[in-house]
Description:
Layout: E1 15-29, H1 35-45, E2 51-54, E3 59-60, E4 65-66, E5 68-69, E6 79-80, E7 90-102, E8 105-115, E9 121-126, E10 137-145, E11 147-153, E12 160-166, E13 175-183, H2 189-200, E14 204-214, E15 217-218, E16 224-225, E17 230-242, E18 245-256, E19 261-265, E20 273-283
Amino acid sequence: MRRIEQPGQGTPERVQWAECHGLRFPMVLQAGLPLLEAVRRGFAAAGFTSGVVKLDGLALSPFAYVMPALSETPEHAAFYSRTFRPAGVARLKVGAMTFGRRDGAPFFHAHAIWTEGGGKESGGHILPDETMVAETITVPAVGLDSAAFVAEPDSETNFKLFGPQAAPLLGATREGRFFALRVKPNVDFCGALEAFCVEQGIRSAAIHGGVGSTIGARFTDGGRIENFATEVAITNGTIAKGANGFEAEIDVALVDYTGALASGRLTRGDNPVLMTFELVLEAR
């Protein structure tokens, strides 16, 4: 399996997780607000401080983003490009967001594919500080209770990354059995989730959110991304027990460090994580 050497030492445990309560709910993002503040208000209105959001259809202006890039120093295995600020309104075709806290304040990690005002299709990592909601929209969200995503320094990658942590009960409306996860570098993404379901006695699960990176990509239709640095958003995902054990069916959209876009269903056993992958599993 493909592997990229990270600059630091990893931990033996390759999936960081926290079991929690959760709630699927419609979130209203108000036009004229910074995207970070709009999402914060949306979670707060439902009684939550952390969770994941699906961003399909969201219009943004002004808008700032970065793409994956090669690292110019040995401190990171890959890095970010310069900041892009396209003119006009960018409309997201697909996108996913993890929302939590960084340095004691609200923060998000979001990847998406979009069409810019001039018609160009692009993708990448949305910057919280320079992005505004251009049109009010209602999007699907999942709030977490008794767990939260918190960004902390990661000694393996030398980035500050979101990871799930146990958190106090908020008393919000909630339902079902949920797990907040972070999958770490150089393990097969589908395989890690399938093994996690076996270990936790989960018969089937739906994936919510899903923001991360893979070492290139291999798709079930034969499509391939050879460039190793990507930014990935899950567009749909389930894990269920079949005749041959658990099988993850995960559809994604991504951009690589050249700006090339791709989408498809990930091939099981052949898509290792590059830096991180955050998501929420809802056991069914």
